[in-house]
Write a structure and sequence with these properties.
There is one protein chain. Helices cover about 50% and strands about 15% of the residues. The chain has about 575 residues and is of the alpha+beta class. Strands 1, 2, 3, 4, 5 and 6 form a six-stranded mixed sheet that branches. A hairpin with a 5-residue loop joins strand 5 and strand 6.
């Protein structure tokens, strides 16, 4: 504990914020060495990630403290509020990332499909949408990475649950913010807990090959350094880069488990000062080693769709050994390891069209990083800009539904299933009843109440946002009224319909009964302010001595009543008397 504290103080010796955070942590967890050490290690991981924002690191130190206890001494109120804001978002993300369903390991051969699974992708987007800030995501990843590194003494089911969260949610999330190294570590740490047989097989069959190839790279490094020096080409580093275990196993599945077909098991990475030297170094390498046809990849002139930049070449050396060499600048290297740009490589076999559809936001991050010098300050605003046209809401089963901004409960209902939309009778958001035209916000949990006697209303067309909802409502109305689609939304048609309904409402109402909270026999009167008719969404206001007053659910008078006497607003619905008799 003392060693970790000293290390933190050394890294942040001039920071009042960090020192104050350490003092508060010590006060709160002085008898809990496990959480104390975990919190300090989380802060050090953030430092490794090149996170320089002190408020983010302080949140890493304090991320297990309850919000009411968070008050740093000798620190401004503004700073305390900022840390509290990050921590509040972090708590939301932690809850969202926790698997609620019983643990069922995904077969390892099917794991690759998870990256393109729409529900998983929506969950990752929802994390961005809720956080409205990259900093809670950084702390989440750092904390979970340390947790994964220290799972050895926990029960097996806990290890597997945390491993599944790391593999299916957190590793792709790290990938989404360009932290390729963190992604690889999370996958490798989860691997033995989720797929112990495959992990043991890999260690047994590739350990020697790993060591042999790494030793060979170490032997040829001086040769490469010599030729670069002879050509007066400056280089900053030459090192071996071993492929992560989980990534390697995924690739082996595509190559009949033949390790000889994996040329980048251990690659040689060359870091040079600038782009010009990248190309000149490539020429120097080809002067001494023979390039394999079709294996030269210029990702500098033609970056991958995710923004990854580097020169790749696979060469045959004098010893008839095949090795992959990656040439990049320090900026390119940092971007691929810990940068905000994503590092989506050939491994996932994702088509250009699919990438652009699902991962456009990652490319946008990379572009902003290039365009904005002071990126750390702007980072806190990025997710809200990326997803300002989308909302992500939860079903009762905790699946994530992606909807356009302005989407309502009816849009949500049709997104779940057409039958649910067609018989949508009410909605709850975060456990509270709301109107069907309620505009949903990211992070809300939505439940749709259905009634087999309920059918779509033409009023819904005035507020739904999704093409699917609009199309399904029109189709129903066409069949119900025998009208062409283009006439349904015309104002003249609606006015004519309303005028006609005013004449027949008394007749139609006699055929229908109103249930109050599902109960019949309660005296009702229809309010004149909105004149509800069968088919309209309705609520009841319980009066004093005069039964229930029925209003349209979007009636302005009802909203006023709800503000004054919310306890007297009760759910109401129409029931066809004739269908009951039959």
């Amino acid at each position: 504990m003392t060693t970790l504290t000293k290390k933190i103080k050394k890294e942040f010796e001039d920071s009042k914020i960090i020192i104050s955070a350490l003092q508060l942590l010590k006060e709160f967890f002085k008898r809990n060495e496990f959480l104390f050490s975990h919190s300090l290690r989380t802060a050090l991981i953030l430092k490794e990630m090149e996170i320089k924002d002190e408020e983010t690191v302080a949140t890493g130190i304090l991320h297990h403290l309850p919000l009411p206890s968070l008050k740093l001494k000798e620190v401004s109120e503004e700073t305390n509020n900022e840390i509290s804001k990050i921590l509040k978002k972090l708590n939301q993300l932690r809850e969202l990332c926790s698997l609620r369903k019983s643990f069922k390991p995904t077969p390892i051969k099917k794991w690759q499909k998870l990256l393109l699974d729409l529900r998983a992708e929506n969950l990752r987007k929802m994390i961005f949408g809720i956080s409205q800030d990259l900093r809670p995501i950084f702390v989440l990843l750092a904390g979970r990475l340390d947790e994964m590194r220290n799972l050895q003494n926990f029960p097996k089911d806990y290890q597997q649950r945390k491993g599944k969260e790391a593999l299916e949610i957190l590793a792709p999330l790290a990938y989404g913010v360009g932290m390729g190294e963190i992604k690889g570590q999370l996958e490798d740490l989860a691997f033995p807990y989720l797929y112990p047989k495959e992990y043991k097989w890999l260690l047994k069959n590739v350990k020697e090959e790993y060591a042999e190839r790494k030793n060979y790279i170490e032997r040829i490094k001086p040769q490469l350094a010599k030729i670069l020096n002879e050509k007066k080409l400056k280089f900053l580093d030459i090192h071996a880069r071993a492929k992560h275990y989980f990534s390697l196993y995924q690739k082996l599945l595509r190559y009949e488990m033949d390790i000889e077909k994996i040329y980048d098991l251990v690659a040689l990475r060359l870091i040079v000062p600038d782009i010009e030297t990248c190309y000149r170094a490539l020429g120097a390498i080809h002067d001494i080693w023979h390039p394999l046809p079709g294996r030269i990849k210029d990702y500098i002139a033609f970056p991958k769709p995710n923004g990854y930049r580097s020169l790749h070449t696979t060469v045959l050396t004098q010893a008839n050994k095949i090795i992959e060499i990656q040439i990049k600048t320090p900026e390119m290297h940092q971007e691929a390891e810990y940068g905000v740009a994503s590092h989506l490589s050939y491994k996932e076999k994702i088509s250009q069209k699919t990438y652009r559809h699902q991962f456009y936001w990652m490319e946008q991050l990379r572009k902003w990083k290039e365009e904005i010098k002071d990126f750390e300050k702007i980072a806190k605003k990025i997710p809200s800009e990326l997803f300002k046209e989308q909302v992500f809401v939860l079903t009762p089963k905790k699946d994530v539904i992606n909807l356009p901004k302005g989407a309502t409960c009816v849009d949500f209902a049709y997104a779940i299933h057409s039958e649910i939309g067609d018989h949508c009778a009410g909605a709850k958001v975060n456990g509270k009843m709301v109107a069907l035209n309620y505009v949903l916000k990211t992070g809300e949990a939505v439940e749709i109440l259905t009634d087999k006697n309920k059918t779509p209303s033409s009023d819904w067309l005035r507020f739904v946002k999704t093409a699917k909802a609009r199309s399904k409502i029109k189709n129903f109305l066409q069949k119900a009224y025998g009208l062409p689609a283009e006439k349904i939304e015309k104002k003249s048609f609606i006015k004519e319909k309303i005028s006609l309904l005013k004449k027949v409402i008394p007749i139609k109402r006699k055929r229908f009964q109103v249930l109050i909270a599902g109960q019949s026999g309660i005296s009702v009167k229809f309010s004149k302010c909105c004149s509800p008719q069968p088919g309209d969404e309705i609520s009841a206001f319980i009066t004093k001595g005069e039964g229930a007053s029925i209003h349209k659910i979007n009636c302005s008078n009802l909203k006023d009543l709800q503000e004054k006497w919310p306890q007297r607003i009760v759910k109401a619905s129409w029931v066809n008397r004739e269908s009951e008799k039959s």
